């Protein structure tokens, strides 16, 4: 149990450091350069963002092997949403990388993750603060739907470029008469994105009710 908690604490600490660096960097750049900083957000912090999102795949493994008791499907959906939008949509289209929507996405993701990993680190040490617990399970209620809308907008912005360049579209040679037109795949994924959002929001409310109750009890005991 100690080894497991120590490993999870180190993991949360690494993610906290990465997302805190991104979040702080974005704020400082905006205060220094103003709107000019928004266009090159991906170029300045995209590498660290990609590393953090790749590292987050471990959270699915944590649930599968039983060291994390979170629900698998909601976490799987949230992680895959980010992976698809970041690596498939944004990273593959240089024209999209300079759009302001990338900055909005990164801001929402990192604001949520800084709070979440702070809460996780303290909970590994059995330290619970009611304001932080409330913030962790309440902030995502307005911000997660906003992030889904931002993801959908980023996908819509990218569609003309996927149509023009034919990225990821596949046409199999004879004797096969089968082709995959990737813009259609993205349009279908938009539907999946909003269906998943409804499921995840329901799970968020369930977790909020359960954890805020636990947080109140432990706060009173302390």
TrEMBL record:
The keyword Transmembrane applies. GO terms for cellular component: endoplasmic reticulum membrane. It catalyses: (3R)-hydroxyhexadecanoyl-CoA = (2E)-hexadecenoyl-CoA + H2O; a very-long-chain (3R)-3-hydroxyacyl-CoA = a very-long-chain (2E)-enoyl-CoA + H2O. It holds the Pfam family PTPLA. One of its GO terms (biological process) is very long-chain fatty acid biosynthetic process. It is a multi-pass membrane protein. Its EC number is 4.2.1.134. It comes from the Eukaryota. The chain crosses the membrane at residues 7-30, 42-65, 127-144, 181-201. It is found in: Endoplasmic reticulum membrane; Membrane. Keywords: Endoplasmic reticulum, Fatty acid biosynthesis, Fatty acid metabolism, Lipid biosynthesis, Lipid metabolism, Lyase, Membrane, Transmembrane, Transmembrane helix. Signal peptide: none annotated. Catalyzes the third of the four reactions of the long-chain fatty acids elongation cycle. This endoplasmic reticulum-bound enzymatic process, allows the addition of two carbons to the chain of long- and very long-chain fatty acids/VLCFAs per cycle. This enzyme catalyzes the dehydration of the 3-hydroxyacyl-CoA intermediate into trans-2,3-enoyl-CoA, within each cycle of fatty acid elongation. Thereby, it participates to the production of VLCFAs of different chain lengths that are involved in multiple biological processes as precursors of membrane lipids and lipid mediators. Belongs to the very long-chain fatty acids dehydratase HACD family. This is Very-long-chain (3R)-3-hydroxyacyl-CoA dehydratase. It comes from Formicarius rufipectus. The lineage of its organism: Eukaryota, Metazoa, Chordata, Craniata, Vertebrata. The gene is Hacd4.
